[in-house]
Structure formats: C-alpha cells, structure tokens
Amino acid sequence: MDNSTIKEGFLGQRMIVLPNEVIHRLSSKPITRSFYVTDMGYYPKANYHHRKRKKGVGEYIFIYCSEGEGWYDVDDEITPVFPNQYFIIPRNTKHSYGAHKSNPWSIYWMHFNGLLVNDLIERYRLKAKRTIAVPFESGRIALFDQIFKIYKSSYIEPQMEYASISALNFLSSFIYDDTNNLRTDNYENLVDSIIEFLTDNIDKSYTSEDIALKFNYSSSYIFNLFKKKTGYSLIHFFNLKKIQKSCEYIKYTDLNIKEISYKVGFQDPLYFSRLFKKYMGVSPKSYRTQIEN
Length: 293
Description:
This protein is α+β, with helices and mostly antiparallel strands. 47% of the residues lie in helices and 18% in strands. The strands form 2 sheets. Strands 1-2-9-4-7-10 form a 6-stranded antiparallel beta sheet. Strands 3-8-5-6 form a 4-stranded antiparallel beta sheet, with no helix packed on it.
C-alpha cells in the first residue's frame, strides 16, 4: 500500500487509501480474501506525476492510461505507455513510473492483493508484453467509478464484498479482454460455424480433413484455429459432443447401447463403449445403472 502524498495535486484527481483495519478484515474474510483492493484512484492530466520505489510495495499495481502518455521502469527497462494501454507492476519489485513531460497521462490505478492474484497475474504475463492495448469502453470506467464510490462511502461487509468482486471483474476485463471479444472476430465466427455443423451432424463420422474440405480451409489451419478457441482438437471436441449426446439418450430414452452407438455415429459399439468409459469413467451400461438407482 502506498501512503505517500502527491506534492503536486492534479485538478479533478480522486484517490482513496483503505485503512489498515479494513484491509486486514478484507484479507481474512472468505469472500474477499481471494481478491481485494487496498488503494485506488484517478489522476487526470497528471503533470509532473512521478513515483519511485526502491523496494516496491506489498501489492500489485495496475495502471490504465486513458489519454496522454507516460512510462514505467521495472527491472531497469523503461517502457513507454500510450493511450488505452495498461500494465501491472509486480509486488515487492523495484520500480518507477511517471507522466510524459509535454503530454501527461490520465490514469486509472489500483493496488490489489489476495490469494488468487498470483495465478491471475500469470494470465497477464502469458501475453508476453510489457504494456497491453485494450479498446476504450465506457462500461469499464463506470464500473471503476462504482467501486470507488463504495470504498469512499461505506465499510459495511456486504458492500465491501460486492466492491471486491466488482474490482476483480474490472481487472479481469483487461486481462481477459481478448477472450471477452472472441465473438467479434471473423475467425471465431468460423469456429462457431464448425461447432454448429458438428452439433447438427452428431450421428455422422468425420475426419479433420473432411471438415477442412467442407469449410474450404487447410486441415492444419482448422486444427490450430479450433484448438485456440476451444482448447480441444476438432475430433476430440466432436467426440465430446457425441458422448454428451449419448448420455442424453441413455438418460431419457429406452434405446439400448448398440442403438445409441449408431445414433451418435459409431458403427462399432465396442469402440463406442471404450470411448464412453474414457470420457465418463464408467461404461455406458454402468452409467445407465447409476442414474436408474
């Protein structure tokens, strides 16, 4: 937590530092201990803004530049920061940062901590960039303002819980921005079309090459694109959908296992049973027995 003051104030600045007593409560309660904010603020047109911490601080620092320019230095590497870019400084790490002299930044910032932040930051680090660009969204700023208002007006436990959950949502909207916007990508529309095709043809059998030919792309391109979005290879995903459908048949129809095998595109019932057990942990027959008992 940074309790230092700003020598030069910024017109319109907002800042709040939670009392240590409140932070201790947040860090010990079941709902808030996973993620909580210790300090947050907004500095508009922050002329001469500069921070240097030789030992860092005990929390992670998130900074989002909404306009203007700035810079930060971690591990003796200076990185420029431009509008609609954000960065996160690791806790307990020597660092410095500041506004551009002639075009000072406006920043939304937050110090945060909690049990899940290490894993959350790993997602950020996997992007392998020192600053990350995100499109401006008024909804993010509205959420930030709401969180700030809660911290400013109340320390009542339910409200603090809501503020912590909202703050995690705010930060996640940056770290997972590429995931948030998947459906706006034309390439992702292709994956959605493939999923729809597979779902509509669950009773058939296809190879990766069949699918690639159907959609007029190379099989390697389809494979890489599909796995990037779903986390599965195309055929693995198709088999999962088949097993899912077979569970529905077992649960809601009187079809025998052989008939169900044909219904989901497997002409070899023994192979179907082996695949079912691989995904479900039990054979189709045992699965039916379990849900009937």
